[in-house]
Amino acid sequence: MKKHYSLAALLLVLGSFQAFSQNLLIKGGWVFDTFSKSFRENSGIYIEDGLFGEGEGRSDWEVINLSDEDYLLPGLIDLHAHYRVSYEGKAFDDTVAMPKIFLANGITSTFPAGEIEPEKIWDLQQKIDAGNIPGPRILHSGPYFGTAAPDWNLGFTEQDIRDRVDYWADRGAFGFKAKGIIKEHLAILIDQAHKHNLTVTGHLDSGFRNSVNPQDAIKMGIDRVEHFLGGDLLVATTSAYNSLKDLYPTDPRLEEIIQLYIKNGVYFDATLGTYGAIGLIDSPIFEDWAEEDQYFIPFTKNVLSKVKPSAFNELCALIYPVKQGILKRYYDAGGLITVGTDRPLLLDNYLGGGIGGFFIHREMAAMVEIGIPAGDVLYFATQQNAEAFGIDDRVGSISPGKWGDLMIIKGNPLEDINRTRSVHTVVKAGKVFDSKALLGAAKGKLGPEN
Ligand SMILES: [Zn+2]
Fold first, then answer.
1. pLDDT, tens digit, for every residue of 174-198?
2. Which domains, and CATH codes, for the chain?
3. Number of helices (H), then strands (E), in the chain
4. Ligand 1 centroid to 113 CA: how many Å?
5. Protein residues within 5 Å, CB atom, of ion ligand 1
């Protein structure tokens, strides 16, 4: 027997953020095709037992009817999705507000990019998977590899690092992230992760103070690079941040490093938008359209009202246009791009506005602003992110056999990328979530003391 609902009626029936996990048939609206990077009329999307299907041999569908204004896209993947909150030098992973805010924004998969409290994140995942807490999939990173991990030891032996990789891989990590790592350790991490068929990404540096420059990391076999395209153009006598501001995106010597990425199939996650936000760049992209203040606990609001912009904000204002130019040049050359937000809530610094979940819409808009077509950007945030992470057999497009994850927005985002902000319904593994209800449940909950 088929049950028919309009979306509004369905959400009314629910009265909460989660509908049901039955077999769904979504009719109407327009659907993003990751092959043509364009929308076509939705001829019917079937989700069966949590996976996209063909809809054969069954008739007990819960039918959702969409309007002509509704646009369906595969669930977004955030490959740099921090759950981290820090205050007075102490860091936590937030499991209360962040998961709901990510999911409400259409992000159905997150790579935490270095977990501060891996056990807590593991526990969160189990509760999410069991349906006890609404949230996105957590593609575990395990702890950071490098000094960014509280228990990291520069004296770790080769065996220590291999054991650490094995331990987290066996527990189900999806990939690893290095930050604050030395060359010798990074080479071992990459080698051991690849034995498990897992990818490695890195927040690297200029080579300053024993750090690794991305050019060297690529030669070691790293799969992805965060933040800095890097290379020998970044002088090793100062930090990457400091040397980046003096780089000209038109510098002919940049060609060599771009070609090195392309030749090795290495993906670059520019985390462009966060530099614009921290640099307090005046642009509609960084507008606070969601009144994000309302998601903070009073304590967070109070702390944030007192932090003042610092030299770091000024530095990021200088870095932002450099990063814009470099990313566009990399795109034009055919470089592989991924999408990640990098928005931990760090209360000790003034990072400008933007909570992780909302920020993916800014990141995509920032890419479009520099001249990358919206269809490509949407493709990067879905299918290409999945490929970069080696999980495109399970996620990234609305295709039979993949996880039944999608988001529904109002209006065609190819005409205006800011329309991705209008997510109203998210489906994860066939479960329907109402964005507004998810956000309502996150209000007043984000901070170090929740
Ligand atoms: Zn980060």
1. 999 999 999 999 999 999 999 999 9
2. 3-74+397-442 (2.30.40.10), 76-388 (3.20.20.140)
3. 15, 22
4. 6
5. 342
